[in-house]
Amino acid sequence: MPTQLQHLQNNEAILLMYLGGELPPGDRDEVEQMLASDPNLRGELDALRATQEQLTGFFSRADAATPLPLARPVAVRQVSRAIRQWQEDRAGAARAESRRRIRLPWWVYPSAAAAAILAIGFAWMANHDWRFSIPPDQQYADPQQPNDVRGFPNVGPEEFEQFEYARALRRSFDSDNSSLPIGREEADQLLALSEPTNTIFPPGLDYDPLPSSRP
Amino acid sequence: MPATFVPGNGPAVGDGKNAAAVATTDEVLARRLRDGDASAGEELVGRYHQSLMRYLHRLAGSDHLAEELHQQTWLSVLDHLERFDPASSAGGFKAWLFRIATNKANDHWRSHGREKAAKKGLKLVTDAQQPPASHKLEGTEQELKLRDAIEKLPESQKQVLLLRYYTGLKFVEIAEVLGCPLNTALGRMHKAMIKLRQLMEE
Questions:
Q1: Window B:144-183, CB contacts with A under 8 Å
Q2: Which of A62, A205, B75, B101 has the fewest CB atoms within 10 Å, i.e. is most exposed?
Q3: What is the third-level CATH fold of B19-201?
Q4: Contact across the interface for A16 and B189, Cβ inside 8 Å
Q5: Which residues of A touch B45 (CB under 8 A)?
Q6: What value of ipTM does the predicted structure carry?
Q7: What is B141-153 written as a DSSP string?
Q8: Which secondary structure element, helix H or strand E, spans residue B93, and what is its range?
Q9: Which of A75-79, A170-174, B10-14, B99-103 has maximum average pLDDT?
Q10: Who's near B18: CB < 8 A, 6+ residues apart?
């Protein structure tokens, strides 16, 4: 079944393809049948073949008499220089690209994200009252435990000292005054000093630094 | 076997090796060049030097311009080598190379036309500096006549004719190189042959 002939528009196209040996075998057989039965077509083919041979002769003779504008070694040298330059440019571009796209280990990205979240959290905690997050039974200091400052994150050295005075007083008064290391005046003084600290004791503790039972 | 205008008659392409083998080798060389092997590029340049230079010389009509277009063609080959896909290009590397060369020549003519218009008919510096192609060909009447006859052909016919003669590409491949239908390429070829014969016989 001819395949290409039906797409060729005219005899010239068919004959050129035939002369060039570019028709599939089926098409080629069909053209040969047409040539055998059509003297005019055969004449066209002969004329076309003669023209081809004539032109081939023209080109061959003209080329043989004409040196190439650029000798082969010179052309190769010219293009070789261009190739080397191209290779250098390409290597430079590749280096620049690799610098631009440094690939870090996979764990760097989640680690960086975690560090960022922690940093934001610490920053928030530093600027906000976060005590609400401490369980109620752990929010306040145990007065029986010396140096227990739970619940008082912002207690500075000075306040802490007053706090300790207040604890000392309480312990003294609670132990039936027998070990009271200070006199009444000094106790008043210390209680006065501990006054600001009292405000940080938990509400409802009912802590009275000067209980009525004291002498 | 019918006589053909080109295959086997034009300048040697691939040193007379089997066309398919040459195409395969060209692809291998192109891949090696892409991978950084400069010697593969030199091999390709050497292999196509004669056919490409003759084609460009006939197309351009001047030694200087042919040299310039040859250089530009290979620079463009290097620039686009990454995108060269032998599987999608009928005619392989050779067709691709000559398509680039043809495009470079077309670009030149377009730019030449603009320059000419801008300079209002002043001759281009490149033309003025270089002797005509026929300068070295004193006494070769045949060459002068052929050159003049080719000059008189329309550009589209000239390209088909020269591609056919100097590359040995099939008409289907030439049509793809020129980006036109097969029938158009064949029509141009036929007209070019008839006209060239008439001009040569005058």
A1: 146-147, 165, 170-172, 182-183
A2: A205
A3: Rna Polymerase Sigma Factor; Chain: A (1.10.1740)
A4: yes
A5: 75-76, 79-80
A6: 0.75
A7: HHHHHHHHHHHHS
A8: helix B92-119
A9: B99-103
A10: none
User: Are B197 and A61 a contacting pair at CB < 8 A?
Assistant: no
Confidence of residue B9 (pLDDT cuts 50, 70, 90): very low
Nearest of A45, A51, A39 to residue A11 by alpha carbon: A45
Q: Which residue spans within A96-179 are E strands per DSSP?
A: none
3-state secondary structure of B11: coil
Residue ranges per structural domain of chain B: 19-201
Give me the torsion for CA of A8, A9, A12, A14, rounded to 10°.
Answer: 20
Query: Chain B partners of A41 at a C-beta cutoff of 8 Å?
Result: none
Q: Which residues contact A20 (CB under 8 A, 6 or more apart)?
A: B2, B4, B5, B6, B7, B170, B171
Q: What pTM does this model have?
A: 0.62
Q: What is the mean pLDDT of each run of 10 residues along chain A (215 residues)?
A: 74 91 91 93 92 87 83 85 84 80 80 94 78 54 56 56 66 59 63 52 46 39
Give the residue from chain A lying closest to B49, CA to CA. A72
- Kindly state the tokens that stand for B197: 């014969």
Helix (H, G, I), strand (E, B) or coil at B155: helix
